[in-house]
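Margin note from the TA: students keep mixing up input and output lines. Inputs are the sequences; the output is the structure of the whole complex. Example:
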Amino acid sequence: MESIVRRDELTTRFRRGLFVGRFQPFHLGHIGAIRTALEHVEELIIVVGSAEYSHSDKNPFTAGERVEMIRAALKEANIDPSKYLIIPIRDVHIHATWVPFIVSQTPKFDVVFTNEALTSRLFKEREYKVERIPFLQRDDYSATEIRKRILKGRNWESLVPKSVAELLVKIHGIERIRELAVSDNPTGAEK
Amino acid sequence: MESIVRRDELTTRFRRGLFVGRFQPFHLGHIGAIRTALEHVEELIIVVGSAEYSHSDKNPFTAGERVEMIRAALKEANIDPSKYLIIPIRDVHIHATWVPFIVSQTPKFDVVFTNEALTSRLFKEREYKVERIPFLQRDDYSATEIRKRILKGRNWESLVPKSVAELLVKIHGIERIRELAVSDNPTGAEK
Amino acid sequence: MESIVRRDELTTRFRRGLFVGRFQPFHLGHIGAIRTALEHVEELIIVVGSAEYSHSDKNPFTAGERVEMIRAALKEANIDPSKYLIIPIRDVHIHATWVPFIVSQTPKFDVVFTNEALTSRLFKEREYKVERIPFLQRDDYSATEIRKRILKGRNWESLVPKSVAELLVKIHGIERIRELAVSDNPTGAEK
Amino acid sequence: MESIVRRDELTTRFRRGLFVGRFQPFHLGHIGAIRTALEHVEELIIVVGSAEYSHSDKNPFTAGERVEMIRAALKEANIDPSKYLIIPIRDVHIHATWVPFIVSQTPKFDVVFTNEALTSRLFKEREYKVERIPFLQRDDYSATEIRKRILKGRNWESLVPKSVAELLVKIHGIERIRELAVSDNPTGAEK
Amino acid sequence: MESIVRRDELTTRFRRGLFVGRFQPFHLGHIGAIRTALEHVEELIIVVGSAEYSHSDKNPFTAGERVEMIRAALKEANIDPSKYLIIPIRDVHIHATWVPFIVSQTPKFDVVFTNEALTSRLFKEREYKVERIPFLQRDDYSATEIRKRILKGRNWESLVPKSVAELLVKIHGIERIRELAVSDNPTGAEK
Amino acid sequence: MESIVRRDELTTRFRRGLFVGRFQPFHLGHIGAIRTALEHVEELIIVVGSAEYSHSDKNPFTAGERVEMIRAALKEANIDPSKYLIIPIRDVHIHATWVPFIVSQTPKFDVVFTNEALTSRLFKEREYKVERIPFLQRDDYSATEIRKRILKGRNWESLVPKSVAELLVKIHGIERIRELAVSDNPTGAEK
């Protein structure tokens, strides 16, 4: 099964790991993944990808809002702040330089945690150790599912940490997602 | 009904207004919208959005051609040239800085006229006053409809000012729209 | 003498002319140049170059502020608003595509007014007609001289239209120029 | 019929021709096209378009890998290396400056070989001579078809030069295309 | 005196503060500044500016190396990791959108600590509260001074935290600064 | 002495080498360097750096003009066209991704020939083999010296291949260099 961690590998301890996500929004599956990763590294770099995007259907939240969500959620989960760093990284749109760009923006790391095929391939082509990580209840704990539920007015609060739910409400994130859904123009220009 | 102007609001007079569009092409609905806006402001800034794009199915005309269309159409409509400015603005692709970028490229304004959901939200998040504006016969007077009619060889001339129809013919715009429709390659490269 | 207009050439009338400047700030020399140009064209496109820059020692004002200056000054000078267009254009940084980019952002023109060597060469290489234009009292009526006088607290108001002087004061432009002069860091970052 | 060369035109000899493609991958149809073009020019510039893209479903290979394919295939086909140049060109995303950008990156040329509608239009608008070129067995000899066959595990080797097939295997290109097909995320970021 | 903190202001407590620097390299003056700032805020966002630059005389270190320096130095100084966030931010080169871009990449903040004139002006123009902060022994504790000493082989270790000195040696930063000084070509291209 | 080749190293034969230059213009020193490099590799990739720049004092010629110079000069020097490739590469302005970008745009290489300090360091940091290469009569055979001589009207023709001298004259390169020298405005905008 795809999301089973290869335990043989992960008995190894690493100095620093990298975990890449867009976190639109940050949810309980991410918390689970971070807990698992932290069992195997001394420090984890959490990369907030597509950092320049916001206010679109796939990327409703700014990088700053996402950093704030993650910070609040990890505090709520009692995860030691000396164990992780949160680094927003913009898209470079050139796959051949994406990994070197991430490397230039982060402290040195020796393992990458990801289940995504392209991310995995790009790091492997540069000789990085890549580990799959089990996401808890993958189908539910997905950002796509959460945005869909928000749109349809169904329960989404149970899929995110309490602090994230509160923050989403406070920044009017629910209205934002709904308004973006009726916009027919992703660049903000009138037809 | 969504495209009815909120008259209570618009009894207020503003110093300068902003009206954003792509104008691919400029049509009679735009003329109607500009006339309405001009009843409520001393001066109107007409922003030609997605200014760097042209020669694609959604953006067939260059910003320069669009500026020329608007200039000719407003002259034809006897709209006083001291009442408006036409400013082309490129897409910045970062929604979080789109409004500040527009603000940096235009004289100070105090109201924004738009019916588009994202445009409206981005300006409101920065505390700008945003007004809806009634587009006359919205379904017909749409640039998408006009491009579709040009493609299908149906009557489109009645939807645009006479001067715009003449300009489109003069710059071979009809052929351009038809040729772009059969191109399978938006970046201009052969497969 | 370099700044004498070649009258033989300029007896020709052109349909539309282009006049490129950065206008940091717009001054009486520019007014003189525009008046001269307007004797030879039906319509003049005033390009506000380096449009994305502001808040630096060479480019203190935003494109929007510069458009507002030009608009106010031409109104003060009673120049017919149907005779000119003001188009802000960002730097493309690739000289080989600078002229085609300007062409794509402006209505069709058939003559370029400039005294600047590179601007002149780039348009001539693309077969555009380029005309020199006499700037009145060139040494004084220069934007560099005006910024220098503002910095040193000497009289600069006599070099710009009254409306520009008022606008500069209203937007706190004097303080801005002086503060930028003591900044040791053009990208806004602390060392 | 569209892919028939207009022989009347092509009896003319040109000094230097331009042939634009993405070559994802380079195949036997391209070889045929280059042979035909070389009958009519002294030297052919082969432009590798979308040069900055790789590791995506439509653009699996880097420009460097594509240059290496073309070089090897033309050697295998005994085409004289003094007769062609291979120039990678990135997308500029602004159609209005795409042709001037290509012109700035290549030696002077006097004819363009292409069957693509937009490429053809953009060059013609700048007064370049554009010639259609017959692709051998167009339906099969298409890069899209080859990528599809690789994905489905069907025979693709017969559609490309032997040297290209070997290179694709050597750089693990087959696995790359298959892995990219299951990636749900073109920017390399985890959801 | 310029570097004296305005104590009347700073008796106020803020929720979150922003401190911008390039940190080339991070030194004892920065530690002092951060300690002072932390007396007045619950959390401090440390922005690593010019994040995309490295390997140049003014910006020898990558953002990742700078993040690692700061992290190590703050740990060495026993500063509570729940009290700060480190966010690398690239230059946007458009001063008019620099502050909105920073705002989009960081959690909400209500005070900015800076002594730099342009940084101060840009935040004040957007109505942010800006506080000066006393740098200890400013002339010595400057990154420019440290890079100069490294070049000249004079003592620089006493100006940075011990952990930073160790990291600089470990990543061969001393050699890097010296080699960059003899490069005559900032873009890495041979003449 | 710095420009002496380390003969012990260069007894090794490499598969493919990389030689980076801006070639403004291409001169006899470059020919000498290429001849030397070709003694040690089967194929040489000649990278034309800063490819997007032209019409400035340091970069007067377009990449296309430079490719044409190199092609003509190597033909004049009877260098086998199957032995080299010419690849224009734009500046990426991010030193940390410059080498990976070059690698993505070129066929695989196993040695880099350069005397430039930064180029050398960036390739060495990525574990590439870097070789110094003796430039013949370095002081004279420098592009800077040639541009200076052209400006001052002194003999420059003896420093470049005959075919390059002819091409420079044909494209009016001499006038271009002289006109650019009197331009006070590198971005082509009037002050």
